[in-house]
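A quick aside before the break. I want you to see a complete sequence-to-structure record at least once, exactly as it would be stored in a machine-readable document. Don't worry about memorizing anything.
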Amino acid sequence: MNPDITAVQVRAHYILDLTFSDGSRGTVDLTNWFGGHGGLFLALQDPAFFAQVSVDQEAGTIVWPNGVDLDPDMLFLTARGIRSPA
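That is the input. The structure line, written in tokens, reads:
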């Protein structure tokens, strides 16, 4: 299990700077995760809505007001360059 996310900052649309509970930091580009997808992800295509991302301290990950959240392990690996976004 990888560290939880403790802070998030929007760098640009679909690009986030993340801070993890082990003190490490990384940037993730979520363009391929959300761009062009419908359903709950449709709202995330709006830059203003995307910027409403926050940290769910209990789950240790990031979340948006519509309930979309992401696997913190996948985010950690992506931020480390170990895994490419799907």
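Two observations worth writing down. The chain has one domain: 5-73. The chain is about 20% helix and 30% strand. We'll return to this after the break.
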